Description:
Elements: H1 2-21, H2 28-61, H3 67-85, H4 90-113
Helix pairs in contact: 1-2, 1-4, 2-3, 2-4, 3-4
Amino acid sequence: xxxxxxxxxxxxxxxxxxxxxxxxxxxFITVMSFIVVLLYSLLxxxxxxxxxxxxxxxxxxxxxxxxxxxxxxxxxxxGFATFFVAPAFFLWASICSxxxxxxxxxxxxxxRKRGHEMSI
Length: 120
């Protein structure tokens, strides 16, 4: 999920910057910026997002009735908590936490749809 989140975030950021980039949208600098954003977001998602997701999964599995709500609260809470640790990354971390939660739920549902049981 960390890789999917980083790719989605980087593509979204790239697409949102296209109107400002104009004809230079696919220049070397823009492509290198995309790669840098992808690598930094992947680093953050692996070191911060993945442990948070594991914690959210561990805690939310125990409460099957409110599992999605609790998992969303934990993902978003830790994303918003970056405001107190690194305010410059607050917006980006919050966006990544939303994307991480969405990808987590999408993969969980597709995994269950194939008849597999998830356990921790």
